[in-house]
Design brief:
Elements (H helix, E strand, L loop, with lengths): L4 H6 L2 H17 L6 H8 L6 E5 L7 H6 L3 E5 L3 H13 L6 E4 L11 E7 L8 H11 E10 L7 H8 L11 H10 L5 E9 L7 H12 L5 H18 L3 E10 L4
Parallel strand pairs: 1-2, 1-4, 2-3, 4-5
Antiparallel strand pairs: 5-7, 6-7
Helix pairs in contact: 2-5, 9-10
Bound molecules: S-adenosylmethionine (SAM).
The site of S-adenosylmethionine (SAM) has 19 residues, from α2.
Length: 257
C-alpha cells in the first residue's frame, strides 16, 4: 500500500469524529495548562505574546493559551475539528484572541508569530520538510513540534498480516524519522521525552474503528471479511485496554533566519 493512502482515510470525516472525541476527552482528563507543550509555548513568548497553533484540532491548547492572554492563529483544515474549535471560541468569548484559518499547513498567507507549534500534526503532512521550513519562515523565537515516539499505527500490524500479508504495514512518521530529517536541514533541536502509561483510546471502541480500517483495507463490500475484522478488533480491544506506554517527544528550536 502507498504510504499516502492512510492519510486520506485518516483525514476523512468519520475518523476525525473519533479523533475529536479523543482530544476532547484528553482535554477534560488532563489540564492542558500542566502539559510540557503548553509550558514550552508560554516560556518562549515575548512582548507580543503571539503564537500559531498548526493543526489546532478542537482547541485543546489554543483555548487555554488565549485565556492566558496569548494571541493565537489557529490553522485547522478539518470541518469536523473546526466545529468544536469555533464552539469553544464562542463559549469562551475569545473571537478577538483567536483567528481561525481553515487550511492545511503551509498556508498561502504570510503569517508571523513569536512561537509556532504543531502538536501531533506533522505526521499527516505529505511534505514534512516544507512543513518545518514554513514554520521557520513564520516564527521569530521558537518552533515546537510534539511527535509520537512509538508508532501510533502499531495496532495495524496484526490486522495487516491477516488481510494484506504481502504488503507493507502503513506507518506514520515518528520521532526516529523526523529528528534525522531536521539534522539534515541544519536544525539541532532540543528534545524532551514524555511518557504516559494509560489504556489506548484508539482501540477502546471497535465499532468506531471498524469503518476506518475497512476503508484502509478496502473490504467494506465484503461481509465475510468485515465479520473477520470485527472479531479481530474485539479481541484486540481487550489487549489495547491494558495499560501501555506512550512516549512523546517535544522538539523545540530557535528558527534560523
Ligand atoms: C491528532 S490531531 C491534533 C490536534 C491538536 N494539535 C492537539 O494536539 O490537540 C491532528 C490535527 O491535525 C490536522 N491536520 C492534519 N494535517 C494537517 C496539515 N497539513 N496542516 C494543518 N493541520 C493538519 C487535523 O485536521 C487534526 O485536527
Amino acid at each position: 500500500m502507498e504510504q499516502n493512502d492512510w492519510r486520506s482515510s485518516v483525514l476523512n470525516s468519520s475518523f476525525m469524529k473519533i479523533m475529536a472525541d479523543n482530544l476532547n476527552k484528553s482535554a477534560s482528563e488532563t489540564d492542558p495548562k500542566t502539559t510540557p507543550l503548553y509550558q514550552a509555548v508560554i516560556s518562549h513568548l515575548d512582548g507580543d505574546r503571539t503564537a500559531i497553533d498548526i493543526g489546532a484540532g478542537v482547541g485543546r491548547l489554543a483555548i487555554p493559551l488565549a485565556l492566558a492572554g496569548v494571541k493565537i492563529t489557529a490553522v485547522e483544515p478539518s470541518n469536523e475539528m473546526r466545529k468544536h474549535l469555533v464552539a469553544s471560541i464562542e463559549k469562551e468569548k475569545l473571537s478577538s484572541s483567536i483567528n481561525v484559518i481553515p487550511s492545511l499547513w503551509p498556508v498561502q498567507q504570510d503569517l508571523h508569530a513569536e512561537v509556532s507549534f504543531a502538536s501531533f500534526v506533522i505526521q499527516f503532512s505529505r511534505d514534512p520538510v516544507e512543513f518545518v521550513r514554513a514554520m521557520e519562515r513564520s516564527t521569530s523565537r521558537r518552533c515546537i513540534l510534539s511527535v509520537h515516539i512509538d508508532q501510533p499505527l502499531g495496532f495495524l500490524k496484526d490486522v495487516w498480516r491477516v488481510f494484506r500479508p504481502s504488503e507493507a504495514v502503513p506507518a506514520m512518521l515518528t520521532f526516529s524519522d523526523l529528528y534525522p530529517m531536521l539534522l539534515k536541514e541544519g536544525i539541532i533541536a532540543d528534545v524532551t521525552i514524555i511518557r504516559e502509561d494509560r489504556p489506548s483510546r484508539t482501540m477502546a471502541d471497535p465499532d468506531k474503528m471498524i469503518n476506518l480500517l475497512a476503508d484502509l483495507l478496502a473490504i467494506k463490500d465484503n461481509p465475510g471479511e468485515m465479520q473477520r475484522l470485527k472479531k479481530m478488533l474485539i479481541e484486540k480491544r481487550d489487549h489495547g485496554l491494558q495499560q501501555h506506554v506512550m512516549r512523546t517527544a517535544i522538539i523545540s528550536w530557535e528558527p534560523q533566519r
